[in-house]
Amino acid sequence: MRTRIFQLDSFTTRRFTGNPAAVMVMDEFASDSVMQQVAAENNLAETAFLVPQGEDFRLRWFTPVVEVPLCGHATLASAAVVMERLHPGRESVTFHSISGPLEVSRADTGYAMNFPARFSETIAMPEAIVAALGVTPAEVVLNSFNYMALLESPAVVRNLAPDMTAIARLDRPGVIVTAAGDGEYDFTSRYFAPAKGIPEDPVTGAAHCMLAPFWAKRLNKTSFRGFQASKRGGEVHCRLLADRVELRGDCVFYLEGEAEI
Fold first, then answer.
1. Per-residue pLDDT tens for 18-68?
2. Which of 235, 230, 116, 102 is nearest to 176 (CA)?
3. Active centre residues (catalytic)
4. Which domains does the chain have, with CATH numbers?
5. How far is it, in rounded angstroms, from Cα 217 to Cα 202?
6. How far apart are CA 94 and CA 12, in angstroms?
7. Axis crossing angle, helix 205-219 with helix 72-81, rounded to the nearest 10
8. What's the rounded Cα separation, in Å, for the pair 198 and 141?
């Protein structure tokens, strides 16, 4: 089987920054084991698999080691593939996924994605989080997807060197760390998910589904400009819309070709 493959850098306007994702367009999904092998071969944070469904598409995401329930940067890349390559000039697309229908439309700059919000609750300080991060957070919150730790400052977030082995042993697949912004941004964050085969994700759309409602309570507003301070770095514009989050970003095409599976 031969299938079209695209690789894009998401949440950026400059190649070699943001978060790279592979997008593969198929007539039908291959078996789970084959798609997992393909994602491992691509060796990117996520590979998105697209299958047409009428005017819409079905969408699944795989890291090199596991299928995930939601991925922002690979959805952004998939939207760019649909609207710039498969159907040039198209203004919007709906992806049907395990997280429900995800609508993406053109925006003034880049694309706007409509995702489910991920609310969280404050918990008692977990000793395992303190040990894994090597610092004591001001607060730790939790939902069924991730832990999130509020740190003292953007500098602490940027300079953090967590114990990835300890993070991989936690009872959630990932840890978001965040701090209030330093003027240019409303908040700064990073995301670690070694249990998913991603020691540090460069720019994480799904993490911002948790970050947006968290910061809405603390900053008393609903629109934010966030910066994910990974080595590659990336900017995410997000807006809380009741139980949904709008994420805005751009993409840059890097590779286009055909894969033989």
1. 999 999 999 999 999 999 999 999 999 999 999 999 999 999 999 999 999
2. 230
3. 46
4. 2-116+247-260 (3.10.310.10), 121-241 (3.10.310.10)
5. 25
6. 22
7. 120
8. 21
